[in-house]
């Protein structure tokens, strides 16, 4: 219900500025060009303002949709809004020629478009980055090793300047200058977008500073994987569900002050500390071994819907993970051990080397407490390993499912790990006949 309310609110929101603008001077919109330009401008303006609201990660929207869906929607809607802005500007320039109002509108539009194109091509993994020429552009830029994700992120934040320019453009239009209600309608949306942005970038970080965590331990799980344990300075560990993630930022220590998302691997039943397990992949994660006890972090969250507690009707669960994708599952297993030890669970855990079977001692303890838990490591490239070998393909998946657990319509499937494993597993599970609504996944990219 809440989901549909939000969707309705989002898509209906342009109606308010459209109606008040039209009613302020119906004669002005007798021509189709003027009417179309006004409608496109109002829709684009409200939807672009919404992008700033959604990017601020408001909890009430996140709990309904999940962060990954919000970010995907954000990317898609920004493109649609910018196409509308483009047509709106073309019509406006045709009617009014070049003046201060249209020039500012054009600068705002170009700023939005340039930043959006760079963000889509280089920041996110979307269908666009799988199209051949775009894929090549991304590869070339990445191979130059000049720009980091943090640079793109900084640039992306500059869209706030484009929003301010867009508002100035709106305020310069004669109908907004002449009518207080129209002025109010556009001002509300601008202030909402701008307000959420400021809250997210300025107010929230300073609140988080008050709720810092201090690193108590750093454990090298493998040469490329570390677990960081942290205790809250004020003694209160945040409330979260097993499987959720947070945005972590080291605010005191040697590591860059960048914010990165990581799944919380500890159990919510543990009220003393939080832990994360991180794999060295890029510039930032390769520096994780420089984190030392005593360093301080802020944690924003929790976020995410990838938690078995959200799907209570499921009787049994299958976790299919690869590599570092084990982290949200660790949290769920640790939690189940404490509160739900009779759960029927099959964990199919893909890894390159058996040495990536981390926290082996704790796993033994979890297995001892959970009589209905079965763990099958699937090791890709370790000739010395004598158990299940290779990759989790369709054939193997079907066999392991048959051997490992009684699968029925009440079995929930949880996927996390490399994109290729997730995409293949989603397809393979669908082919086997698993309903889409029983497959849940967490992508490690936003
Ligand atoms: C919901 C979620 C949970 C995650 N949980 C874990 C985990 O438990 N353990 C773990 O090791 N990794 C986890 N990751 C992945 C981790 O966030 C990235 O590996 C890390 O941010 C990469 O940063 P880098 O500079 O080392 O690598 P880069 O090579 O710079 O980046 C690799 C990719 O990571 C993403 N990325 C980079 N920086 C950021 C950032 N600041 N914010 C958002 N995305 C970024 C981008 O898609 C980028 O293309 C998770 C990611 C998400 C989205």
Summarize the structure in words.
This protein is of the alpha/beta class and 446 residues long. It folds into 3 domains: 2-205, Up-down Bundle (Four Helix Bundle (Hemerythrin (Met), subunit A)); 211-303, Elongation Factor Tu (Ef-tu), domain 3; 308-442, Nucleotide-binding domain of ferredoxin-NADP reductase (FNR) module (Rossmann fold), CATH 3.40.50. It is 51% helix and 17% strand. It has 16 helices and 11 strands. It has helices spanning 2-12, 15-24, 32-55, 59-65, 67-96, 100-122, 132-144, 149-157, 159-171, 174-178, 180-210, 283-286, 327-339, 360-369, 394-404, 419-432, and strands at 213-222, 225-232, 245-252, 259-263, 274-279, 296-303, 316-322, 344-351, 373-379, 411-416, 439-442. Strands 4-3-6-1-2-5 form a 6-stranded antiparallel β-sheet. Strands 9-8-7-10-11 form a 5-stranded parallel β-sheet, covered by helices on one side. The longest helix is centred in the middle third of the chain and has 31 residues, at 180-210. The chain is elongated. Bound molecules: flavin-adenine dinucleotide (FAD). Flavin-adenine dinucleotide is lined by residues 125, 148-149, 245, 258-263, 276-279, 281-285, 324, 327, 442, 444-446.
